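Thread amino acids onto this structure.
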């Protein structure tokens, strides 16, 4: 066997090794994406649970009830409910971004219902926050999405 033949065999073996490595890397990337999606979904559920718990918290629950009834709030209560509303908008935005990058399959009717409810909660404070702050701080694509859902209410 000549040096040239040995070199050809070496090139063939190395090309097979490169192909095997690429297949392995593709499988690893797929597994990593699946793990990332699962982690993202778990984080979203935890965030929803945190909001649900916050709604029952003795510090915010009475404020929510007062706001929903249209009763006047103290300055401290306004601050607390404003933070609560901000948390809800951030969660909706997080879900939107994850859906855009393909980490979730899309919003379900219950998600759109949650968005619609948010606009009507807290004696209009959430809608007011959206108009005064949200529309300015969130990206245009999210603003268009929210406005389209708002128009279809």
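Threaded sequence (153 positions):
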């Amino acid at each position: 066997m000549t040096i040239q033949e040995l070199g050809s065999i070496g090139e063939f073996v190395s090309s097979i090794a490169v192909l095997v490595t690429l297949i392995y890397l593709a499988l690893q990337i797929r597994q990593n994406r699946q793990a990332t999606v699962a982690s993202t979904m778990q984080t979203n559920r935890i965030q929803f649970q945190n909001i649900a718990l916050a709604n029952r918290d003795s510090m915010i629950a009475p404020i929510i009830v007062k706001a929903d009834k249209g009763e006047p709030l103290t300055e401290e209560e306004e601050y607390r409910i404003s933070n609560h509303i901000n948390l809800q908008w951030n969660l909706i935005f997080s879900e939107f971004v994850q859906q855009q990058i393909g980490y979730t399959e899309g919003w379900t009717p219950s998600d759109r219902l949650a968005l619609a409810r948010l606009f009507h909660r807290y004696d209009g404070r959430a809608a007011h926050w959206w108009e005064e702050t949200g529309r300015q701080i969130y990206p245009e694509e999210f603003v268009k999405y929210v406005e389209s859902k708002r128009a279809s209410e």
